[in-house]
Every structure is written in C-alpha cells, then in structure tokens.
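User: Before I run my own analysis I want an independent prediction to cross-check against. Here's the chain; please return only the structure tokens and, at the end, one sentence I can use as a sanity check.
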Amino acid sequence: MRMSIPAPTRILLLLGALFAPWNSGNTASAQPSESPADSRADSRERSVAPMPSLAPMIRRVSPSVVSIGIQGTVREQGQRNPLLDDPFFRRFFNVPPDAGARERPFQSAGSGVVVDAKQGYIITNAHVVENARDITVTLSDQREFPAKLIGSDPQTDIAVIQIKAESLSQIGLGDSDALEPGDYVAAIGNPFGLQQSVSYGIVSALGRSGMNPDGFESLIQTDASINPGNSGGALVNLRGELIGINNMILSRSGGNIGIGFAIPVNMARSVTDQLIKYGSVKRGQLGVTIAPVTPDIAQALGIASNGGALITQVAKESAAARAGLQAGDVVTALNNRKVKSAAELRNAIGLLRVGDKVQIALLREGKARSVTAEIADPAATTTAAASTEPGALPEGTQHRSLEGAQLEDAPDNGGGVLVRNIAPNSRAASAGLRQGDVIVAANGVRVASTAALSAAWRAAAARGGSTLVLQVRRSGDITILVLR
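Assistant: Structure tokens:
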C-alpha cells in the first residue's frame, strides 16, 4: 500500500537523516564536560551513521542486467543506378554480377534483462538484435556467452534471446499499471559501452504513444538518463522490481536531454510469453475502426467525458460483428478494466492472442451494455474518424444542405437522410461524406428525415455544443463521421 507523506515533511525527514549525526556531534563538542574519549566515540559513531543510498538495491539488481554485442550485415542505403539493371549495359561494360547495392558488416551494442535464470531467457529491444548474425551476451561478472534469438516483435520493439549459463541472476517483475507520475525509478544498462551504468530519476508521464504509428505503444516517460546502448536495459522501482524495458530517447543531439521512454513491463511480459511459446506474436483482431472520445464528441453523444473509444466502423463477418458491436458504440471497459482512450483499446486488443475471449463493456444510445467477443486473426488495423468544422442546416421541408452536402429524405430504404450531392473541397467532403451516403443517426439519435436531422442539430446547439456525430449507411455498412 502506497503511503503518502507531505512534501515538506519528507524534506525535513531527509535533511534530518543526512545531518542529524553532524548536528549531534557539534552539540556534544560544545559541552564543557566532554572528554577526548567522548569525542573519539562520537567520531566513530558519525563514521558508521547510515546514509540514504540506492546502492543495496542496485547491487542486488545489477547482475540481472547484461550487455549485448551484435555483429551482422545490413544492406547499404542509397539510390541504385538504373543502368545496372540493364542487361545490355552490364554486358557491354562487363559489369560484375555483384555490382550495385551491397551488404556491409556492422557492429552494435545494447542491453538486456534476465527474466528466467533457469532457462536463460533475456528480454531486450527488437531493434537491438535487428539484422544480427552473431549475438554475444556479457554478464556483470564479465563472463561471455553466445545467444540465440528466440523471437522478435517489431511492433512492440520487444525481443527474447537465450543463453546457456550457470548461476544467472533473475530480476523480479513489478506492476507497471501501478506506476504514477512522480514515482522514483532507476535505469540500468550499458550506454556507450559503459557497462552497469545507473541513472536515477522519476516517472515523468505514462501512456505516451505516437512514436511508432504502426506499433503498439503505451510508453513510460522518465527523466532518468537513457542514452545509446541503454536500449533493452532495465527500468526499476526502488524495490528493485522491473517496471520497464528502456526503449528510446527524444533528442536532437542523440544524447540524453531528460526525455526517455521505456516499454511497460506488463506489455513486455505479454509479448515475451508469446515469443517464447510461438517464436512470434499471434496478434488478434477485433475488426473495428475506432476514434478517441473527445470532450465535444462526449457532449454530442450525451455521455460523461471520461475516456473510452468510439467505434466508427465494424468490418463484416469480423469478431466484432459476430459479437454484436455496432458503429456508434463507445467502448468503456475491456475484461473489467477501464478503457481510457482509443490508443489504449488498440494496445489491449493487439496484445491478446487469437482465440482469446474478451468481455467488452460499452455505451449504446446512452445505455450500458456488455458483449463477449472472440479475438480473430490477423492483426487489426484502426484509423481515426475524420472531422471538420460544422455548418448549418437551413430551414426547408425536403431538400436541405449541410456544409456542402445536398440532402433529402431517403426514399424507401428504411428511412434516413440521403446525401444527394457533395461540393468539392467542402466541409462535408472533408469530413468524409460521399454522394449516396444515408445518414441514419446524429449524436446517438435516429433520424428518419431532414427535419429530424435539423432537430438533432438544434438540440446540440441548445446544449452548447457544435459537433455532429453522424452514423452513415454506406454500401450496406455503417460508419461514423464527425463534423465539428
């Protein structure tokens, strides 16, 4: 259980721990009755007084952090002369067969963490072992061992290698979900080839993403110094538990500026289990397109603005469709764990295995529901819904306009509002509306006519909002478009 001590009190306690022996010694020396023997005893007491230090924890943890040396080949970058692909040119000038793009040898270094001493499994970054031909692991006691690549997952930047060695030290795993900004952490690794280097700082932020658009990210940001060579090393809490795998830095110079990132251990553990079992990650698919629930979208839908993910489209015959999910649903929890954002939902689904069953809590038209889906293969691909500034719905009876879209009541197809024409470069076009779309709901309310769409627009304005979340039927599918 985390116990909170007010900051001023913590400062006083720390100062007291640091300077109490010094102060007591000065006070004793000021007493006229003090003898030389008393002074010597006080000096001995000061010499053994404990000092605040991370050294005991670092001594215990450091043997589980290893140095990784890589040798391999990489294809040289650069534009190939197109004449080298012309058979006549090659024969005429007697161009040798290997002319053009070549592979060159390279050497690099990184860090790793022993997570299974008995089996010799070590976690590192996928980019550390990329293109590796030979992998060498150096332990803290300077023993060296060749390593075998068990599996690599570039989308999370996690890899597992294995060595055969006796007397390995294994690190304990913490709970990265329990982290909070301000928690103290230490980074251990081999920056610039300097083995067993330790830096110290705090958790600066959680849930960072966007560094790798094609990857699954929810990174820990820390100001503990992370530099080239730290990749794959350990980020530990003050108990010496592994809470992250050091991953990357944000820097213009290539050196540390106080913005480093680590992969949460809970994510790394899930990926590691699959790499050890299968050699790769059998990433699952739900079959939905999602978007973040922003405050204006939440207001438009009449729900509390407390995160979640808006489903904008459900693929036909997907796991989501079989479970009964619909476009316009807002996912609020997954397996009883709150979903804070669309990125968090994508990460959670992407880390599930094919065949896993997941319970999904959602809001549909303002009412709470729950469904169960079975994760399918292959990996899901999600994109965010488009959005633009809103327009007005001028008064009229049958034909109306919406920011460049000419609308009319949909004839004999279940009701709704038919998009008859779209003006090029208009806001409606930018939002993703197309000719032939049928708007069937706005802000979670079913609309059967242009009059009903106007009413939904006026209701949003009355609540102080200016966003329309449109549910559109297109070629038999339902998708969500957002006009702001």
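Sanity check: Residues 55-80+117-281 form a domain with the Thrombin, subunit H fold (CATH 2.40.10.120).
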